[in-house]
Automatic annotation (TrEMBL):
Pfam families assigned: Plug (PF07715), TonB_dep_Rec_b-barrel (PF00593)
Sequence motif TonB C-terminal box, residues: 969-986
Organism listed in the record: Duganella rivi
Domain TonB-dependent receptor plug, chain residue ranges per copy: 73-186
Signal peptide: 1-27
Bilayer topology: Multi-pass membrane protein
Domain TonB-dependent receptor-like beta-barrel, first and last residues per copy: 452-949
PROSITE patterns per record: TONB_DEPENDENT_REC_2, TONB_DEPENDENT_REC_3
Low complexity biased stretches: 37-46
Name listed for the protein in its UniProt record: TonB-dependent receptor
Length: 986
């Protein structure tokens, strides 16, 4: 039954939404791309693998707001059904999605494990086209979700995953339909809103190395009441993954993994480069020459003296081929690279409910509530490496007598330089983020008749909050550390004390860093207080949104359809850091837990890492949009075609006005099963809260000073409230072959895309700034200071709208299904393949003196030239009870860096933009996954999955600072993983 919808009802349903026009959620659920019994693991395209729609079929896909009979949208969209996700058998849907070729550069629990201060550790956020998580819009049932970080990106781990019945991945600009952030595309999670019954999933697993043990428990219940007018759905989920802990110091792989070999990028001297040798060479079994596990003298006549058991001095074994900061072989006990966790300890807890009431057969009001908490824990590195930058005086009370005597005679200034890994520290640094989401939505959707036409609507109001608390343990305060290691004997008592009287008065306790000597725990508690770095962030999002769509008129080639709506949104955040990091002179609710200390800097940045600062900010945006679908061709001779156009106007309280538009077309050609599609769009991304208002944060980095030396610096990041929106031009063209008469179960699509983004909000990394400064760029030099005393060197990083991005590539998708009964065999075989060829991924810093950087195929980044996922499944074996599936994940070979010049001899002089390297090749990788499920009964099934079946070791990606040397954004870093589970559905 269809009746006019009273305006009063809309207002009631969305608590005042009629005050603004707003962007819609879905008008109704999309039709499945294939019959449920013939569902492929992933369709070649949500709108391409379907059979030809009948005159009464209404197709809704996430790339468009149009819901109309026979509509085929021009924007490529890949869909994963719940059956696809079940076959992937991952403890987190996020881990299934990032295997898709179009998703490149996503963050998860295996990325950023080296980071203490970034704030994004453990954040499961998606990135399309390698354009970054900030340029990918992630939705839940077509609705925005409060960000789990001040950047505004959502955390997929906070979604109610058991109720997800499909995920639409829109691989194209969608800002005209959905608003800001959709430059790379949209990932839309669609839940089962009318789930009835009870279902559960219980699984567990571990790796071949008996680590990263994981367990998942999920349950959902739904039931209709009052003649099914009232529907209630509730779900709860818990997942725990123990992670892969650090093995500590030295060349030792985590959990018995033998592939770790201390990779490093060795830098030659200026003299070697002038003689025609390359600047960089990738080496294995690397030993850093500026520190040892328990201390190493790095200058003067005692250079090469290290300290062992009980502080006994011994000659350090440097190894061979010593160039710049690295040797090959030698004493690698103090290496810190292996000390980075391969995967975080990770827990997610989610509770969700949806309650709906059918006003009549066509109209529904509903409320949803979601509570989710995601916690992580990991160690970025052991100890706290000091790269030869400690000034030790000859009268230090802990120096062995022989060393002290040599210091007095050999160092006229009475000071020598020492580097150390601080292997005597009793515990590794531990970073512990916790994100808690609280989200509620009230809304209405349904149908009504107007002027003799059928219309549908969707309106909602959302309030979401996210609280992120990060605690860092076992980390030192730099000033206290420096006071504590500067120890002397008190002439009056003969006791060893801190040299500084002011530090002694503030509680300084001396520590011995020379040799394998148990640390004085009073000294440890002084330099690493239990109240370590802390950050507390509160983010909120309020949205009022509405959408209406229907048929304007019947055109000569089909119905002319219109969707229109608008949105009002407010984003707000506030963040407090601890006083030692944020500044003792700042107002903080946590000051009582951090006693005043006159030896600490009042402006903050006292910690070795994790110096979080205070900040706050907010913005509002008003948007209105309209989208039209106009069929203009319907001919038995020439086929059918339609034009899809959309326009969105936005006004931000901070960044001003922005506009997005889309112009697309599809042509169902007269050739059997062949359809062409093309779309051009202008897409936008407004600056987020962090980019606009972030207070200064400081992280420790090591940079090369272009003289073959590694310098420890502070990277100081700060927001810029003058930022404007990014603007992108997104063009794509593709062809779709959908179930032609000569291959009824075959679907194939190929799409070319070209995305140009200007006014990109970006900043240079510290090494780029240092290189540019040494290259003579005075503008950049004003933000660089690396020639001061230890602890004072810094590089200031602030974002501006000066960069640009250009990404081009081709996507391929294929699905084929065959009933094996034709060959006298049981069951059905399904083949599915997705591949992405990245032609270009060019980033132009936009600063005088810089050159564009090609990222396609650079294996230190996130955009390999080729990424593919191929799956084969055989279902219906053993009387329909058994199903087996095999998949291959392929990463094509590439280079270390496209800007590097490969040469072995007679090399040109390297430049900051184009360094030289001995071998620039980086191999690709293929990973095999195997799984299966067995249906015990209609209600109960069991399944298993083995990921990385061959236990393929990751390709090592060496760095200049002897970090772990992995790129988990490209390569599998965990190894063979086993999982088993049981699903129940009653």
């Amino acid at each position: 039954m269809q009746t006019p919808l009273p305006q009063k009802l809309i207002c009631l349903a969305v608590a005042g939404a009629c005050a603004v026009l707003a962007m819609p959620a879905y008008a109704q659920e999309a039709q499945p791309a294939q019959p449920a019994q013939a569902e492929a693991p992933a369709k070649a395209s949500a709108d391409t693998t379907a059979s030809q729609p009948t005159a009464e079929t209404t197709v809704v896909v996430s790339g468009s707001r149009i819901a109309a009979r026979g509509f085929t949208q021009p924007t490529p969209t890949t869909t994963l059904s719940s059956a696809d996700l079940d076959k992937a058998a991952k403890p987190n849907i996020f881990e299934s999605l990032i295997e898709l070729p179009a998703l490149q550069g996503s963050t998860g629990r295996t990325t950023n494990t080296f980071s203490t201060s970034s704030g994004i550790q453990g954040l499961s956020s998606l990135s399309l086209r390698g354009l970054g998580t900030l340029r990918t819009l992630t939705l839940l049932d077509g609705q925005r979700v409060v960000g789990a970080n001040v950047t505004g990106v959502t955390d997929v781990s906070q979604f109610p995953q058991l109720l997800v019945k499909r995920v639409d991945v829109v691989t194209g600009g969608a800002s005209a339909s959905y608003g800001s952030d959709a430059i790379g595309g949209v990932v839309n999670f669609i839940t089962d809103k009318k789930f009835t019954g009870f279902k559960a999933n219980v699984s567990g697993g571990e790796t071949k190395y008996h680590d990263d043990k994981a367990g998942t428990v999920q349950a959902a219940w739904g039931k209709g009441f009052a003649d099914d007018r009232l529907h209630v759905t509730v779900s709860g989920e818990f997942t725990k993954q123990n992670g892969i802990d650090s093995p500590g110091f030295g060349q030792v792989g985590a959990g018995g993994r033998t592939w770790y070999n201390n990779p490093a990028l060795q830098e030659s001297t200026k003299e070697m480069q002038a003689a025609g040798l390359p600047r960089y060479r990738m080496i294995s079994n690397a030993q850093h020459i500026q520190y040892a596990k328990y201390g190493l003298i790095t200058n003067g006549p005692l250079k090469g003296t290290a300290f062992g058991p009980g502080g006994t001095p011994y000659p350090f074994q440097y190894g061979t081929d010593c160039v710049g900061n690295f040797c090959i072989g030698g004493d690698r006990e103090g290496s810190v690279g292996a000390g980075t966790n391969l995967a975080m300890n990770f827990k997610r807890k989610v509770a969700y409910t949806r309650i709906s009431w059918n006003l009549d057969d066509d109209n529904e009001i509903y409320v949803t509530g979601n509570w989710a908490q995601v916690t992580s824990a990991f160690s970025p590195n052991p100890g706290a490496a000091k790269q030869g930058n400690l000034s030790i005086k000859c009268d230090n009370a802990y120096l062995p007598a022989s060393v002290a005597a040599g210091c007095v005679s050999g160092y006229p200034t009475g000071v020598m330089s020492v580097g150390t890994s601080n292997g005597e520290f009793p515990a590794n640094i531990s970073v512990n983020p916790m994100r808690t989401q609280r989200r509620g939505v009230i809304g209405a959707n349904g149908k009504f008749a107007l002027f003799g036409k059928d219309w549908s609507y969707d309106a909602y109001a959302e309030h979401g909050e996210n609280t992120t608390v990060i605690h860092v343990n076992n980390i030192t305060l730099n000033p206290r550390y420096n006071f504590a290691i500067d120890a002397i004997k008190d002439p009056a008592t003969g006791q060893i004390v801190c040299r500084s009287a002011a530090a002694r008065a503030a509680g300084c306790q001396p520590i011995n860093i020379f040799g394998n000597v148990p640390i004085n725990m009073a000294g440890w508690n002084y330099i690493a207080p239990s109240t370590g770095p802390m950050q507390h962030t509160d983010s909120s999002q309020n949205v009022v949104s509405a959408n209406i769509n229907g048929e304007l008129a019947q055109g000569w080639a089909g119905p002319i359809s219109l969707a229109f709506g608008g949105e009002w949104r407010r984003e707000e955040y506030s963040v407090y850091g601890d006083p030692y990091g944020a500044g003792l002179d700042t107002v903080s609710p946590y000051s009582a837990s951090y006693p005043a200390d006159p030896t600490l800097s009042t402006t903050g940045d006292n910690w070795f890492a994790g110096n979080y600062h205070n900040g706050k900010g907010a913005f509002t945006v008003r948007e209105a949009y309209a989208e039209l679908n106009i069929p203009f061709l319907k001919s038995a001779t020439f086929g059918e075609a339609n034009l899809n156009i959309a326009d969105r106007e936005e006004k931000y309280s901070t960044a001003g006005k922005a506009r997005a538009w889309k112009l697309g077309a599809t042509w169902q050609t007269p050739i059997d099963g062949l359809r062409l599609r093309a779309v051009a769009s202008k897409d936008v991304r407004a600056p987020n809260l962090s980019e606009l208002f972030a207070a200064m944060t400081v992280t420790n980095q090591a940079v090369n000073n272009n003289q073959g030396q590694s310098i420890q610096i502070q990277q100081r990041n700060v927001g810029n409230p003058a930022l404007k929106p990014e603007e992108a031009r997104n063009n794509s063209f593709g062809l779709v072959l959908s179930q032609p008469s000569w291959a009824r179960n075959f679907n194939f699509s190929v799409d070319y895309y070209d995305i140009k983004v200007r006014n990109v909000i970006s900043s240079l990394n510290p090494q780029q700034e240092v290189d540019l400064c040494y290259g003579g760029n005075q503008q950049v030099c004003s933000a660089v200071s690396i020639n001061g005393p230890a602890g004072t060197n810094y590089v200031l990083a602030q974002s501006f709208n000066f960069a640009s991005l250009h990404t081009r590539g081709v996507d391929f998708e294929m699905a084929y299904r065959k009933n094996m009964n034709e060959f006298g065999l049981p069951g059905t075989v399904t083949l599915r393949g997705l591949a992405s060829r990245m032609i270009h991924s060019i980033s132009d810093p936009g600063v005088p003196g810089t050159t564009p950087i090609e990222g396609a195929g650079a294996m230190t980044g996130a955009t390999p030239k080729w990424k593919a996922l191929v799956q084969q499944s055989w279902d219906g074996l053993m009387g329909g009870k058994l199903g087996l599936n095999l998949s291959e994940r392929w990463i094509g070979a590439g280079v270390f860096n496209n800007e590097y010049i490969e040469c072995q001899t007679n090399c040109p002089l390297p430049t900051a933009a184009h360094p030289t390297i001995y071998d620039n090749h980086m191999p690709g990788a293929v990973y095999f996954d195997f799984g299966g499920n067995y249906q015990y009964s209609k209600q109960v099934s069991a399944y298993f999955k083995i990921d990385n079946l061959a236990d393929r070791a990751p390709v090592l990606v060496p760095q200049t600072n002897l970090s772990l040397g992995l790129n988990p954004a490209v390569y599998d870093s965990v190894g063979r993983t086993f999982r088993v589970g049981v699903r129940m559905n009653f």
